[in-house]
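Q: What residues go here?
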């Protein structure tokens, strides 16, 4: 029953992501082992969408370490845990709660010893800046605890670079870029302090290659130059080379204007989904305090309010008129959504 629940939720979210993103590209998925213990270590730009993309586009069913604050309500907590999310407490959650991480880390170690996969965002927080931020050492604690409790375990650390053209915009394009596995074993326990530094450096170096990394010192100036060149932010190799070469031999791309058909489709889609659009524009969007949550809230509206509204419209049209009018409305919404997102 649990597997049916997980599969159903994943299929529903995957369908939602299909209609939300213009394109989702996956690279180097062949690097993911099928049955070995895996710790996915991803950069964190786009709040909840980062986790949803990895969960639905990764062939390995995974557990996710998630900030504990989202587990505050009992019903929400029960649902999240049923979806294999595990709470992690931070200092901002109160010093008294930090001890609760002991059981979560022990559970994570057991899961790894059994050959499961776990996803962690080692930057510790989300930020839309196209920079790989310093990594926390929380993921190394899980590694050490696993190797101490289950010394024969070999863990494969796989960095994951998440790239977005315009993370807060709709519709966006995303790239999930899997790195080269870093296999670790009990040899790390010989000098933990040294191992922490080595692991953080190896993972950070790969993340800086798998996603776009702009140094903080001249971040705004560098970003503006890239924007002026209209670079494709889902091509980290090209963009990073452009930065390293001090913008010499960088190809300037011509901006693509939005076609009339796309604009018309969006306008007609809004008319057909006027209630969800009103909820988004006038209720949800004004309450967003951090831009990183823009896509998360928009996507949440898209997979909740939109299906409910469409279902109500189908029932009304089918009951008041005929079933064929209800089906025509449904096909119309699907077609307009495809044209609005995929063009």
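A:
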């Amino acid at each position: 029953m649990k597997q049916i629940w997980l599969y159903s939720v994943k299929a529903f979210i995957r369908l939602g992501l299909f209609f939300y993103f213009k394109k989702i590209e996956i690279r180097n998925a062949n690097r993911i082992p099928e049955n070995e213990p895996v710790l996915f270590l991803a950069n964190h730009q786009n709040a909840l969408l980062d986790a949803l993309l990895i969960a639905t586009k990764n062939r390995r069913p995974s557990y996710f370490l998630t900030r504990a604050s989202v587990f505050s309500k009992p019903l929400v907590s029960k649902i999240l845990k049923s979806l294999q999310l595990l709470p992690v407490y931070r200092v901002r959650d109160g010093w008294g709660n930090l001890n609760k991480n002991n059981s979560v880390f022990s559970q994570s170690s057991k899961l790894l010893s059994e050959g499961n996969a776990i996803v962690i965002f080692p930057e510790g927080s989300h930020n839309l800046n196209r920079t790989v931020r310093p990594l926390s050492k929380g993921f190394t604690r899980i590694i050490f605890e696993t190797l101490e409790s289950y010394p024969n375990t070999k863990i494969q650390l796989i960095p994951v670079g998440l790239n977005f053209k315009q993370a807060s915009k709709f519709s966006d394009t995303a790239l999930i870029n899997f790195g080269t596995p870093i296999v670790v074993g009990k040899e790390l326990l010989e000098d933990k302090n040294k191992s922490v530094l080595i692991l953080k450096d190896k993972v950070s170096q790969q993340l800086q290659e798998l996603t776009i990394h702009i140094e903080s010192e001249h971040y705004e100036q560098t970003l503006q130059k890239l924007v002026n060149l209209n670079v494709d932010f889902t091509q980290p190799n090209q963009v990073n080379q452009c930065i390293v070469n001090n913008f010499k031999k960088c190809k300037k791309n011509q901006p693509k204007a939005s076609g009339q058909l796309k604009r018309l489709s969006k306008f007609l889609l809004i008319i057909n989904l006027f209630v969800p659009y009103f909820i988004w524009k006038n209720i949800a969007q004004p309450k967003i305090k951090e831009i990183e949550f823009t896509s998360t809230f928009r996507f949440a509206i898209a997979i909740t309010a939109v299906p409910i509204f469409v279902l109500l419209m189908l029932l009304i049209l089918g009951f008041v008129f005929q079933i064929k009018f209800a089906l025509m409305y449904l096909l119309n919404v699907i077609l307009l959504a495809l044209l609005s997102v995929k063009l």
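A: Context that may help when evaluating the design: The chain is about 50% helix and 15% strand. The two ends are 39 Å apart (CA to CA).
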